[in-house]
Predict the 3D structure of the following.
Amino acid sequence: MFRRLFLIAFLLVPVLAQAESGLDAWLRYAPLDEAAARRYRDAVPPLVVTFGNEAVIQSAKSEMLRGVRGMLNRNLRAEARVSSEAAIVIGTIAQLRQSAPQLAPAGSLEGDGFWLRTVRINGVRSIVVTGETERGALYGTFALLRKIALGESVTDLDQKEIPYSSVRWINHWENLDGSIERGYGGRSIFWENGKAREDLSRVSDYGRLLASLGINGTSINNVNADARVLTPEFLPQIVRVADTLRPWGVKVILSVDFGSPRSVGGLTTFDPLDPGVIAYWKNKADDIYRAVPDLGGFVLKADSEGRVGPSAVGRTHADAANVVGRALKPHGGFFFYRGFVYDNRMDWRNPKNDRARAADDNFRSLDGKFDDNVFIQIKNGPIDFQVREPASPLFGTLEKTNQVIELQITQEYMGQGRHTVFLVPMWKEVLDFDMRARPGMATPVKALVAGKTFGRPSGGIIGVSNVGLDESWYGNHMSQANLYGFGRLAWNPDLTSRQIVDEWTRLTFGDDPKVVETVNSIQLSSWRTYENYTGPLGLQTLTDIVGNHYGLAVEASERNGWGQWHFADEKGVGMERTVAKGTGFAGQYRPEVAKMYESVESTPDDLLVFFHHVPYTQRLKSGKTVIQFLYDSHYDGADAVAKYVSDWKALKGRVDDRRYAEVLAQLQYQYGQSIVWRDGVANYFFKMSGIADTKGRVGNYPGRLEAEAATLTGYAVRSVTPPEGASGENAIDCPVATGCTVTFKYAGEPGWRDITVRYFDVNSGTAKYRLKVAGQLMAEWTATDRVPTRRIDSSSSARRVIEGVLLRAGDEIQIEGIPEGGETAGLDYIEIGG
Ligand code: GCV
């Protein structure tokens, strides 16, 4: 009897409980339930046939074997020729025509497209996976496996897909020492101590992920480029990485430094029109292509953020781009010249200065002057991957120049993997935005960058990925959805955010409807949620612009050369970018778009203060005032994250234990941070405007006891910079090595309460905390988190919740803090609730 009960209980526990690391991301090939597996075993032939030894086709074969084994628990046989037996046949159209003409389709496919077909010969049903190129056949293989994983029929296939644009590339900002600029998932998968890593298996795993999305190229080093990449000694390192990615059809691209002819080339100048410099670039390209014949090309950041560029030698961006482009041209290489050119020492006192103008100002007059293998790589917005920006006007300006859009997958200003923010809805808004660039036709950004609007030979979409060695790739399982979504959009920008997230969730976490519904709804609302608590209405993110781009610092953007100003003062907020009254940025758009942004009335609320300086009492389209909206949105944002936590908790047992626990911890942390943001931003604007929250929340925190107002033994009060980083603008920290104590007196009704401790967990030590109530130890913990700050500020603000503590009036709540290393056991407040 007991054994039977045990067995029933065992069967009821979802099979999922096993821990998963996230390494396989959406390519887990988790076993299908028995009924589905049976159906597919009937529909999927037991044999896979491929022709020849070409590496990309071999990858397709091994992927098919792996996928079918995982999902259907069936080992396919592999053969090198077709027979009368039913088979999955994978190959290029040319291979089929040669080795199995009866299975070859009539006609051809464009680019890296694929075709999945069911072909019946003498009653025998085969599945043919083909493409014009090997890559196409590989992409078709992944598409077929995805269909099985998503439960779609594979019995009567005739599915042809052509990618929207030819350039579907990734960039990485990886330094040769193994660190990553703006990477949040650990050290580089490519580099270590100035060389390619000994073990490049993670590069191969990554190539597989990219190929599954149809991504066909990746840069492998930072655009803030180390000139050493162009030295002969370094070439073998590039070769090793290229060899590792080649079987996945992923070309390597190099970031180069414009100063290289002088810094490592032995010349006295880098003037692009100097014959020696021209020869330098040509010889470099020849040498590299000899070693890596399928190199995708180069990418360059010039005249930006301290990088040297053509302006230093009195040349134009076109002079610079064409010289390098011409060196790559004979090898079929592309040159990506970044449109992210601006002066970070701009004078903020001049009301006409505007960083947003820079890209268009720099490139407008050069349209038509770039060679055909040169592309201007343009960030989605005119500033820098902020939480809300309009589309860059440059997309609509360039008619006779190739362009690509650069999106940021790594979440630099978007919570750095510590906050869940699904970026596809944001990217969709930009890609679908009609720039009104040609009369009589729709000219969305996606068509412009693909070269469709003005008939350019090529174009596409590039994403800054910055994965790292962490098993989750990004330091957060939920962030993988951004790479997935980027790849799916690069392939087909007409997919909806919902379609994309639904695929991702089911591939990543399985088919349980409750899981799918919960994860989809968290992801789809997460961008708006993050925007709500970090600065809406086009304020852009209020992160510490001149610091870590993570924590809250409302004024960090002001009064410096970086040019992301919101000019908040006692009367109003916003940067005036109109032609009539401001910097004229709005006028860089084509007339219909310019007109919309020129007036407060027709500017969408989401971008209101990006374009206009308005009084706090300005009414939005909803009728709410700007100031009340600022308050409400921050409370709505934090409430939404609280709900993410409780919704996720309801998935316990439905998601494998490890990822369940890791995502829960991430969301709980995010909730804690959303409160810091909510209070910090709302109080900043309350202080600035003097206008109270009509709902009475701002400045009133029931149950909150500030540490600086409690009884301190050893602890010292310190002010926090910027002040909005701590509740009450002050915190306490402990200068005594053996420890300090803070004592709060409970004065409320007796009962069971939750105590939330807001403390500071900086990255330079591991302080210990002990919490006692009426002398009894209730909790102890160590501050071991690694957030991007060594200072007591909003970035290090952390939260510990001690649930269900019995409190009586007059009880002393005591926290003992013991510093360690550079960490001084800082505390902000406690809050008693529940
Ligand atoms: C690679 C922003 C980032 C920099 C980045 C730069 C760029 O300014 O903060 O880290 O540098 O953009 O895109 O070149």
Q: What stands out?
A: The pocket of 4-O-methyl-alpha-D-glucopyranuronic acid is lined by residues 173, 181-182, 223-224, 301, 305, 340, 384, 412 (CB under 6 Å). The first helix runs from residue 2 to 12. Confidence is low (pLDDT under 50) at residues 1-15. The two ends are 43 Å apart (CA to CA).
